[in-house]
Specification:
two-stranded antiparallel ribbon; 19 helices; 2 strands; amino-acid transport; transport; membrane; AA_transpt_TM
Length: 465
């Protein structure tokens, strides 16, 4: 338990009010100013530790969870699991640097912190990266939800969704109606909350649904191990030539995307009852998420072996070879679709803030302008809805996004802020670590982009021939 937890309530409130001063360009609004400016928030005394952990965990666990078993297929069991743990440690360090420089500069947003270190150019770069990354992620979420519930057609084959499999082909089981209904009934109401702490219960349910998938995968694996239906998984990568060696780096965007949560750290920190607990929130969330990632990757690869697909969810569209296999398949797909529905508003929250900060930098705080808040919410949800309906598949684009915008948000920008060291608080080891982080991020992602582009070019060339 931290010292802040033992402090009297009045002292906690004073510490929250002194966390930072909001300037007119800041897209976020600290809790203290909300309390003084909006009577509707008078009963809010700050977010709890558990609520902050669940919101940060939900930000971390998204679509990337289903791609992690495939990374073990590329790297082998041992290097793959070690890479997941290494990325968790790297993420924890990068967020620790963000928090440290945030405290020194009294910033209230990631964009404000970048602006403090690199001026308006740095602030705009961060906002653009968050916008590109989050819009792409949310479109992917909506596409996946449509695929799971209504089915999808690829390579001339139609894969039935859950609703089509249960009720047959009807207008109300079609993709457009299902996605529209989900948008109006779930996304729009949850995206209308002005505080991220209001999503703490849906975030807790979202994490629970991810655990449901894990429990089912573990259960199926144990049954198949007992029946002798699982062989020994490959422990090390299979590299036969230079091309296969380069192909190992294609997993980097998946790892980066799986741990990106930096754009929500300040939002959660601003609402936290005791700001001294933020580092504990980060460590607890990362421990929880990395444990889920390790377990899902291990049992997913153990279960499907070399047949593990890029999206392991697709493996649950086949006969599992065990009793009640179809029921378990449906349970996995339903829990995952519901999980993404609840992740959507948590990722949408920083997207709206950064759009507002980019286009309305001098306006009053977004939470105090109901018209601007509602207009941005409707416009962004509409763009995401149209993108999900008119873009058949953006997995390739998603990989490139993970190798560019996401890696900047998660690693390059925090390291750059540390090297800039405007307040002379970075140690020599911090700067050495930052240089190594930038070099690793740039090198790995250049190779990943090259490998992805080469594979895409080769695939298109094969189709033409």
């Amino acid at each position: 338990m931290t010292i802040g937890t033992l402090a009297p309530k009045s002292e906690k409130k004073r510490s929250r009010k002194n966390k930072g001063v909001v300037n007119e360009n800041a897209p976020l609004l600290p809790k203290s100013q909300v309390l003084e400016s909006d009577a509707g928030f008078d009963d809010f005394n700050g977010a709890s530790f558990s609520g902050a952990v669940f919101n940060l965990s939900t930000t971390i666990i998204g679509a990337g969870i289903m791609s992690l078993p495939a990374t073990l297929k590329q790297l082998g069991m041992v290097p793959g699991l070690l890479a997941i743990i290494f990325m968790a440690l790297l993420t924890e360090k990068s967020i620790e640097l963000l928090i440290r420089f945030t405290r020194a500069g009294k910033s209230v947003s990631y964009a404000g912190l970048m602006g403090d270190s690199f001026g308006k150019c740095g602030k705009v770069m961060l906002q653009l990266c968050v916008i590109i990354n989050n819009i792409g992620v949310l479109i992917v979420y909506m596409i996946i939800i449509g695929d799971v519930l209504s089915g999808t057609s690829s390579s001339g084959d139609h894969h039935f969704g859950i609703l089509e499999g249960w009720f047959g082909l009807h207008w109300w089981t079609g993709r457009t109606f299902v996605v529209l209904f989900t948008t109006l009934a779930i996304f729009a109401p949850l995206a209308s909350f002005k505080r991220i702490d209001s999503l703490r219960f849906t975030s807790a349910l979202s994490v629970a649904l991810a655990v449901v998938f894990l429990v089912i995968a573990v259960g199926i694996s144990i049954v198949k191990i007992i029946s002798g239906g699982i062989g020994m998984p490959r422990l090390l990568p299979a590299t036969t030539d230079f091309a296969s060696l380069l192909n190992l780096f294609t997993v980097v965007p998946v790892f980066v995307t799986a741990y990106i949560c930096h754009y929500n750290v300040h939002s959660i920190d601003n609402e936290l009852e005791d700001s001294s607990q933020m580092q504990g929130v980060v460590r607890t969330a990362l421990l929880m998420c990395s444990s889920v990632y390790v377990m899902i990757s291990f049992f997913g690869f153990l279960l499907f072996g070399e047949g593990t697909l890029d999206d392991v969810l697709a493996n649950f569209d086949t006969d599992l070879g065990i009793p009640f296999g179809s029921v378990l398949n449906d349970a996995v797909r339903i829990s995952y679709a519901a999980h993404l529905m609840l992740v959507f508003p948590v990722v949408f929250y920083p997207l709206r803030l950064n759009i507002d900060g980019l286009f309305f930098p001098s306006s009053r705080p977004l939470v105090l302008d109901n018209f601007r808040f509602a207009t941005l919410t409707v416009a962004l949800i509409s763009v995401i809805f149209l993108g999900a309906n008119f873009i058949p598949s953006i997995w390739d684009a998603f990989q490139f996004t993970g190798a560019t915008a996401a890696v900047c948000i998660g690693f390059i920008f925090p390291a750059s802020i540390t090297l800039r060291d405007r307040y002379n608080i970075a140690t020599k080891s911090d700067k050495i670590f930052s240089v190594i982080m930038i070099v690793l991020a740039v090198f790995a992602n250049i190779v990943a982009i090259y490998s992805d582009a080469y594979a895409l070019f080769k695939q298109n060339k094969t189709k033409r021939e």
